[in-house]
# Entry
Amino acid sequence: MPSLNPAVAEVRRAVRAALTGLPADAVVIVALSGGADSLALAAATAFEARALGLRAASVTVDHGLQAGSADVAHRAAQAAAGLGLDPLVVRVEVGAAGGPEGAARAARYTALRDAARDARASAVLVGHTLDDQAETVLLGLARGAGATSLQGMAAASDLDGVPLLRPLLDVRRSTTREACAAQGLEPWEDPHNTDAAYARVRARERVLPVLEAELGPGIAEALARTAAQLREDAAAFDEMIDETIEDIVEHAEAGIAVSVAALAANPPALRHRIIRHVVASEFHVSLTRLQTLEVARLVTEWSGQGPIDLPGCRARRVGGMVEFTASERGL
# Structure
């Protein structure tokens, strides 16, 4: 028998590791755009699902943003059916909030979540690769977005109650292309992936190649390792916060209050994380670093300054507490 192509084997191993442990006859859904990454993922999932006794389907989201998008979605569904997946095409309306990329992403993930709920799926699989992870970390670094952004994408996360899996985060984009070629699969080439109007494309086509040329090979892998290490650090911090926070917060009218003494007793890194965690949990908004530092000054540099307006809430010092209350805009 001919030996299995190494790229096909690598993608299948990654998918098998992600699916192992799911109950027999569970449903898994592959997000299939028709590009090389998602097509290689779909082929591997179809193969491994059969071996593990799982049921596999695909969802192709037609954003309607490009001419011929319906035809692209139809071809992706045909490819999925040829692989043995149960294909579904969903047409979505893309809004404007968050910019073109953000709005399309939000619409796509909403469609995937709804499809997973309808199918009672145990997981949704998406085809982000090591290269996608490297680009995410690089863009976060350029924005100065802090450790949270530099953590990149997790291999497993939550999509409004549905497990979202990224089996290919350790697989290079070149490997998915090779896997498609070895299996006779013809991926769709998304023109947005070469449009320099997008920062991610510029990072992929211009910045990373320069870094590789000037600093040596392995930059993408190094950025992905950085993301993994920061996620480990974040998990440790989150555990510390969970153990600490119940003893230092109390409910306040229209909000929540945190002990000044307890915040002051913690090192800055943990103090800032507690502040961000409290605001995110209570008001479902994220603070920038500058906003977080301004709140921390209510603890470390208190001189009677007035309330601080934040997204969705207001922070002020009241005696020995920092009190967060909903702003009028957040009510």
Summary: Residues 219-248 form the longest helix (30 residues).
